[in-house]
Write a structure and sequence with these properties.
- The structure holds three protein chains of three kinds.
- Chain A contains eleven helices and two strands, in the order ααααββααααααα.
- Chain A is an all-alpha fold.
- Chain A has a two-stranded antiparallel ribbon with strand order 1-2.
- The longest helix of chain A is centred in the N-terminal third of the chain and has 34 residues, at about 1-35.
- By secondary structure, chain B is of the alpha/beta class.
- Chain B has one domain (about 1-240): P-loop containing nucleotide triphosphate hydrolases (Rossmann fold), CATH 3.40.50.
- Chain B is built from ten helices and ten strands.
- In chain B, α3 (about 95-100) runs parallel beside α5 (about 135-150).
- Chain C is globular, with a radius of gyration of 19 Å.
- The chains are: A mainly alpha, B alpha/beta, C mainly alpha.
- Chains in contact: A-C, B-C.
- Chains A and C meet through α3, α4, α9 and α11 of A and α5, α11 and α13 of C.
């Protein structure tokens, strides 16, 4: 079983990446579930958060993991303001408009990044960047293990917020029945913005977890967001559990495809899944919407 | 012309329509009445192809149409209107009607001319160039009717085209419906306005909780205790009879 | 219809004079590129403006057209004039394929936008991987000047070629506005259920629209390849083309005959001004486009054309509703 010695590390690596994908997809699926709109600015917000983490490290020497309590609330606020100040205002209550506006926002963020920080890829180095953990069957890089654990923790926290708090209940009510939620006195605009804020906070958390082992460049959002889209479609639009499972599946698939087909064709494997879902099960694994 | 045989439709355990069997004779005006939530609109959606029946058959001109798409059914000569009006809001009244007229008229000029003709027949002559989004409720109801009529249907399903109109408007629409029938179109209508049902329909079917409970002329229906109970609640017929009360009024 | 036809003819005639009347090479080029983006915008407009299906990935069609004609020419020695219709067809086929996948299940709105975006990305990755496109290095089309090779030593030839394409796109759109297909397409945009109740086959209508739209964008791709004689995956399938294709009709007026034309000239005017003000810098023009997109949706959802029409109607005391 020589195979297994290559296969197991690939699967474990895939799971660690998949957890981060799941975290990014979670934000996307939350926003979709409530606003019924795909946030096309999600990837560029991730990129922006990664730059924030990068500059906090480069300028102030703050460790990426320690940046979490700064970056996450910051991006929550940014997401909240973006929804309230720009997206809601421009949409005139029409979904197509929200669509175009989130696209517009992503174009602006991405190209301003290109303008200010040029297209160079940047990485940061931490003392633990190249450390590994021996899991018995394979050596996995420390940042990847932390990313995996962190992503699961954030997911757990989010699940707790959604199921145990008033805010979570309001968000779920709004996702189910917009008109009804308004009637029982839920401040719809506020909850929309809160959802957008939480979704954005998710990518901020992902950025902190990613940076020790990944690079940042103005186009980095694309790399992740299309995968996150696939995860969301796979798991079913608006489904939390679907996003988590979908993320892990995609992570492993990418890792295995990369192993057998090479790096760039590995990504094609993901999109083939994407197309196959559209063909055979457009509601995703756990979705309900027709 | 239309035969519905044992049609049922459930929505996740909720029985909207249960084993309905009814028929519509060619050249007739037939009414389908019943309290709110009786399943009338669901039955319409099932006949017109927007919903697939769980069981049963729908026969139109001798052909089983259950499960066909709405556009196929429309092409066979069965057109419907929507209770909740669905105008092409950004288009003018004329363009709205022309979409229906195009079904059997490929040419744009021809379709627009036919749309104008239908529009005038339905009494929308002065509104032809208005955007459909700017119409009043009465105007929108008429537009629904005009668009469906423009497809040259053999059978027309009208879903509450008189709801929300004032008595004068109702009288106008009643006259329009009569004229449509005279032109050879069979009509099945869902209606709450009893005045219209009484003056239009030869045969009336009553649906309650998804089940057909009565059939007959409007006068017979009004006297049927089951119907009165369906509308006014259990025991109502007896109470009314006891008081020698007047006709059932919905 | 006659008035619109006259306007098209007048526009084409006026444009035909540009190479003779405009001395500046820069401005001739500028008009040429504005026409080029008007073509892409008109392609998008057919599907997005008239059909209401917003594609975020028109680069999938553009790039396919570009690569198709370039590959046929470079690897198989096919004359570009013959490769041109093949490119249009290939792009149309890609459109039909994407349309088949998404419209079969009634995917619309953001779901459809996502699918188109993903397809452009798949194709970009593919172009980066398979040898026939020259991978990331790109594909160089050998310089063999001569009208027979669709390469013009004098750029006037390129000018008239794109003008002809734009004329074709305008006439096609004019036909659309006055045909049953167009009426049905608009009905689908406004209300799918109502359209179906009137006998409109929504799936086939949308499928035809995306095929047509894809084919037109493919012609644009073929033109681009012959003009710049170089392609790489980022140029062909990157997001820049997709963004321009949708921004042009949104700025000019979606679902209107002249909207994309107006939008393209306005947009490239603004882009030139921005270059004057900020200098050439990577990303700046696209950032500006993004801002414009948001502002247009926020303040002028009917585009310049819609705005102009409303204002004109008000000035003339017209009875037309806004």
């Amino acid at each position: 079983m020589v195979e297994l010695q290559i296969l197991l590390p690939a699967i474990l690596n895939g799971l660690t990446t998949g957890a981060v994908y799941a975290l990014i997809a979670l934000g996307l699926t939350l926003i979709y579930g409530v606003l019924h709109i795909i946030n096309f600015a999600h990837g560029s917000l991730l990129m922006l958060a990664m730059y924030a983490v990068f500059f906090l490290h480069a300028g102030l020497g703050i460790d990426p993991y320690l940046a979490l309590p700064v970056v996450v609330p910051g991006f929550f606020a940014l997401g909240y303001l973006l929804q309230r100040g720009v997206i809601a205002r421009a949409s005139h209550g029409r979904d197509e408009n929200i669509l175009l506006v989130t696209l517009g926002v992503s174009i602006v963020i991405e190209n301003l990044a290109r303008y200010f920080w040029r297209s160079d890829t940047r990485t940061i180095e931490t003392p633990y960047s190249f450390e590994t953990v021996d899991l018995g069957v394979a050596f996995i890089a420390v940042p990847k293990v932390v990313a995996f654990a962190g992503a699961l923790l954030v997911t757990l926290a989010l699940w707790w917020v959604m199921s145990r708090t008033d805010l979570g209940r309001a968000i779920r009510a709004l996702a189910k029945e917009r008109q009804g939620a308004r009637l029982v006195g839920i401040d719809v605009d506020h909850i929309f913005a809160m959802s957008f804020g939480i979704g954005t906070a998710c990518v901020a958390a992902a950025a902190c977890l990613l940076l020790p082992s990944f690079y940042v460049s103005p186009g980095v959002g694309h790399t992740f967001v299309l995968i996150a889209f696939t995860v969301v479609v796979l798991g079913g639009m608006g489904s939390f559990a679907g996003a988590l499972i979908g993320g892990l599946i995609i992570g492993v698939t990418e890792s295995l495809c990369g192993l057998y087909l090479g790096e760039s064709l590995g990504q094609i494997g993901i999109f083939l899944i994407f197309i196959a879902i559209l063909l055979f099960r457009p509601t995703g694994l756990l979705g309900h919407r027709a | 012309m239309l035969e519905v045989e044992g049609v049922s439709k459930n929505f996740g355990g909720l029985r909207a329509v249960a084993d309905v069997t009814m028929r519509v004779e060619e050249g007739s005006i037939t009414a389908l009445i019943g309290p709110n939530g009786a399943g009338k609109t669901t039955l319409f959606a099932t006949i017109s192809g927007f919903l697939r029946p769980d069981t049963g058959r729908v026969r139109f001109l001798g052909r089983d149409i259950a499960g066909l798409s709405p556009e196929r059914i429309c092409r066979l000569g069965l057109a419907r209107t929507f209770q909740i009006v669905q105008p092409f809001a950004g288009l003018s009244v004329r363009e709205n009607i022309a979409v229906g007229a195009h079904l059997h008229r490929p040419g744009r000029t021809e379709a627009l001319a036919h749309a104008e003709l239908i529009g005038r027949q339905i009494g929308m002559g002065r509104m032809l160039d208005q955007p459909a989004g700017a119409l009043t409720i009465a105007g929108r109801k008429r537009l629904e009717l005009a668009r469906a009529l423009a497809t040259d249907p053999k059978l027309l399903l009208l879903d509450e085209v008189m709801a929300g109109l004032n008595p004068t408007e109702i009288e106008e629409i009643v006259a329009v419906v009569r004229r449509i029938r005279l032109a050879g179109v069979t009509i099945l209508l869902i209606e709450h306005v009893m005045q219209a049902v009484v003056s239009l329909a030869e045969t009336t079917w009553v649906l309650s909780d998804g089940v057909l409970i009565a059939r007959g002329s409007p006068a017979e229906i009004a006297a049927d205790p089951k119907v009165v109970e369906a509308y006014l609640g259990r025991g109502a017929a007896a109470r009314l009879a006891g008081r020698e009360g007047g006709a059932a009024h919905a | 219809m006659r008035r619109q036809l006259l306007a098209i003819v007048a526009f084409l005639a006026a444009m035909a004079l540009v190479p003779h009347l405009v001395d500046s090479e820069f401005w001739r080029n500028w008009v040429m590129m504005a026409l080029f983006y008007a073509l892409l915008g008109q392609a998008w407009n057919i599907l997005g403006g008239y059909g209401g299906q917003f594609s975020f990935g028109h680069a999938a069609f553009f790039g396919t057209g570009a690569y198709c004609s370039a590959i046929l020419h470079v690897h198989y020695g096919v004359n570009p004039w013959i490769a041109l219709p093949a490119a249009g067809m290939a792009a149309g086929l890609v459109g039909a394929f994407i349309g088949f996948l998404s419209f079969r299940y009634g995917l619309r709105g953001s779901y459809f936008a996502l699918v188109t975006l993903a397809f452009a990305e798949v194709l970009r990755i593919l172009a980066n991987t398979v040898p026939i496109t020259g991978k990331g290095v790109g594909l160089l089309i050998p310089l063999e000047p001569g009208a027979a090779n669709m390469q013009f030593a004098d750029r006037t030839g390129y000018f008239y070629l794109i003008l002809a394409f734009v004329g074709l796109a305008l006439l096609l759109t004019l036909w659309l506005e006055h045909s049953r297909f167009g009426a049905r397409l608009v009905a689908v945009r406004e209300n799918e259920d109502a359209a179906r109740a009137l006998g409109v086959d929504v799936f086939r209508t949308k499928l035809a629209a995306i095929t047509l739209s894809g084919a037109l964008a493919g012609l644009g791709g073929s033109y681009y390849a012959q003009l710049f004689l170089y392609l790489d995956p980022g140029i062909a399938y990157g997001p820049a083309i997709s963004v321009e294709a949708l921004l042009v009709p949104i700025v000019g007026g979606m679902g209107t005959l002249f909207g994309p034309l107006l939008g393209s000239f306005a947009l490239h005017g603004v882009s030139e001004l921005a270059k004057l003000a900020f200098g050439e810098a990577p990303g700046l023009d696209l950032a500006l486009y993004g801002v414009l997109l948001v502002l247009m949706v926020m303040f002028m959802p009917n585009g310049l054309f819609g705005m102009g029409r409303t204002t004109l109607a008000r000035l003339l005391g017209g009875r037309r509703d806004a």
